[in-house]
Amino acid sequence: MMERMPRQGASLAEPVPVTISVDAMGGDRGPAPVVAGMARALADNPEIRFILHGDASKLTPLLARRKALRDRCEIRDVAGVVTMDAKPSHAMRNGKDTSMWSSIDAVRNGEAQVCVSCGNTGALMAMSMVRLRKIPGINRPAIACLWPSRNPGGFNIMLDVGADIRADAEDLLQYALMGNSYARVGLGIARPRVGLLNVGTEEHKGRAELKLAHDLIAGVSDAAEFQFVGYVEGGDIPSDRVDVIVTDGFTGNVALKTGEGTAKLIREFLSQAFRYSFLSRIAAVLALTSLRRLGKRIDPRQVNGGVFLGLNGTVVKSHGSADATGVSAALKLAVELAQADFPSRIAARVASLSAKGQGVGTSGAGLR
Amino acid sequence: MMERMPRQGASLAEPVPVTISVDAMGGDRGPAPVVAGMARALADNPEIRFILHGDASKLTPLLARRKALRDRCEIRDVAGVVTMDAKPSHAMRNGKDTSMWSSIDAVRNGEAQVCVSCGNTGALMAMSMVRLRKIPGINRPAIACLWPSRNPGGFNIMLDVGADIRADAEDLLQYALMGNSYARVGLGIARPRVGLLNVGTEEHKGRAELKLAHDLIAGVSDAAEFQFVGYVEGGDIPSDRVDVIVTDGFTGNVALKTGEGTAKLIREFLSQAFRYSFLSRIAAVLALTSLRRLGKRIDPRQVNGGVFLGLNGTVVKSHGSADATGVSAALKLAVELAQADFPSRIAARVASLSAKGQGVGTSGAGLR
Question: Could you tell me how far CA B328 lies from the centroid of its own chain?
Answer without folding.
Answer: 13
